[in-house]
Inverse folding.
C-alpha cells in the first residue's frame, strides 16, 4: 500500500500543474503494530503489578484504622490504658487517632472518678454505720435493762431514760449532719444566694450560748463595716462559723478564741485562732475528713466528726477554700470566700 498526496500549483488565479507525491505505508503499519504490541505488554505488566501491589498498599493504608479497631475492642474489654499510635501525617486517619486517644483518656478519667466515688461512698457508709452502731447499741442495752425489771425501780428507770435520751440526741445530730452533707454535695443542688456580711454574721453567732460556755473568752476583730461582704446562703455560712466555734471550744477550751475578718483584693478572709495544744503535723491533712476525730486521746470528746467536713463542703460550695495551720500551741483556721461589692455584685 502507498500513501499518495496531490498538491495543486496555482499561478495568477488558475492552476497550471499538479505535484504528486507517494510513499509506501508498510513501514508506518509495522511501527503501529509494534507500538500496539508494546502497549499491550506494558498494560498487562502494569495490571499484574497493580494486582500484586494494591493489596499491600491498601493493607498499609488501613493499618491505622485496624489499630483503632483493636484499641476500641481492648477499651471495651476493660483495658483503659490502651492508646493508638498517632501518625505524623495530618490527615483524616491522624485526626481519627487523636480523637480516639482523647476519648479513651476521657473514659479513663470518668472510670477513675467513678471508682474514687464508689470507694468514698463505701468508706462513708462504713463510717456512718460505725457511728450509728454505738448509740443503737446503747439504746438496745438500756432497753434490755428496763426489760429485766429495772423499770420497777424509779431511780434505775430514770437513769436509763436519761442515757437513752442522750443517745437519741446524739444520733439525731449525726443523722442531721449526714443529711446536711448529702444536700451540700448533691450535684445541681439549689442554693440561696444573697449578700452576707461576715463581720455581722460572726458577731451574731459567737455570742450565742449554744456556741460557747459563758466563761469562754472570745475576741472579734472586725474590719470596716460592709467590706467583708460575700454572696451566699446565710444559714450555711452561719453553720461554718458555728462548727468552727464548737470545734475550738471542744479541743481548745480556755484561753482566747480570736476571730478576725480581713479583705484581700476580691477575697474576704475569716480566721479563727485558738490557744490550744495544737494539732500534730501528721493529723493536719485529715482534720476535714468525715468522721475523723483526731488521735485516740481526743476521741473521747463528744461529736460525730462531721463538723469540719461540713465546713469544707459549705465553703467549697460557695467557691472558697478553708485551710488549717497549727504549731506546738494554737491552731488557726482560715476561710477565704469570694467578695462582692456593697451592691451585691462580684
Amino acid at each position: 500500500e502507498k500513501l499518495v498526496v496531490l498538491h495543486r500549483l496555482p499561478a495568477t488565479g488558475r492552476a497550471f500543474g499538479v505535484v504528486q507525491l507517494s510513499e509506501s505505508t508498510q513501514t508506518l503499519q509495522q511501527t503501529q503494530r509494534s507500538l500496539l504490541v508494546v502497549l499491550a505488554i506494558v498494560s498487562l505488566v502494569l495490571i499484574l503489578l497493580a494486582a500484586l501491589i494494591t493489596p499491600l498498599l491498601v493493607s498499609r493504608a488501613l493499618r491505622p484504622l485496624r489499630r483503632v479497631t483493636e484499641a476500641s475492642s481492648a477499651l471495651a474489654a476493660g483495658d483503659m490504658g490502651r492508646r493508638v499510635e498517632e501518625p505524623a501525617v495530618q490527615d483524616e486517619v491522624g485526626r481519627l487517632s487523636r480523637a480516639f486517644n482523647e476519648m479513651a483518656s476521657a473514659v479513663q478519667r470518668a472510670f477513675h472518678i467513678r471508682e474514687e466515688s464508689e470507694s468514698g461512698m463505701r468508706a462513708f457508709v462504713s463510717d456512718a454505720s460505725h457511728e450509728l452502731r454505738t448509740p443503737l447499741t446503747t439504746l438496745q442495752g438500756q432497753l434490755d435493762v428496763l426489760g429485766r425489771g429495772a423499770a420497777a425501780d424509779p431511780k434505775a428507770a430514770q437513769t436509763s431514760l436519761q442515757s437513752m435520751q442522750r443517745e437519741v440526741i446524739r444520733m439525731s445530730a449525726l443523722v442531721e449532719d449526714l443529711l446536711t452533707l448529702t444536700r451540700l454535695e448533691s450535684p445541681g443542688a439549689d442554693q440561696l444566694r444573697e449578700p452576707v456580711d461576715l463581720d455581722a454574721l460572726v458577731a451574731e453567732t459567737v455570742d450565742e450560748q449554744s456556741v460557747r460556755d459563758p466563761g469562754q473568752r472570745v475576741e472579734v476583730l472586725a474590719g470596716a463595716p460592709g467590706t467583708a461582704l460575700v454572696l451566699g446562703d446565710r444559714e450555711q455560712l452561719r453553720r461554718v462559723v458555728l462548727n468552727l466555734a464548737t470545734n475550738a471550744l471542744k479541743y481548745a477550751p480556755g484561753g482566747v478564741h480570736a476571730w478576725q475578718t480581713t479583705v484581700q483584693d476580691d477575697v474576704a478572709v475569716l480566721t479563727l485562732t485558738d490557744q490550744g495544744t495544737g494539732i500534730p503535723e501528721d493529723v493536719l491533712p485529715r482534720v476535714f475528713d468525715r468522721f475523723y476525730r483526731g488521735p485516740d486521746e481526743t476521741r473521747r470528746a463528744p461529736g460525730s466528726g462531721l463538723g469540719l467536713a461540713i465546713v469544707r463542703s459549705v465553703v467549697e460550695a460557695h467557691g472558697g477554700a478553708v485551710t488549717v495551720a497549727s504549731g506546738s500551741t494554737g491552731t488557726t483556721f482560715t476561710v477565704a470566700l469570694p467578695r462582692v461589692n456593697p451592691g451585691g455584685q462580684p
In short: The radius of gyration is 43 Å. Strands lie at 2-11, 14-24, 194-197, 217-221, 229-232, 256-264, 267-274, 321-326, 331-338. The chain has six helices and nine strands.
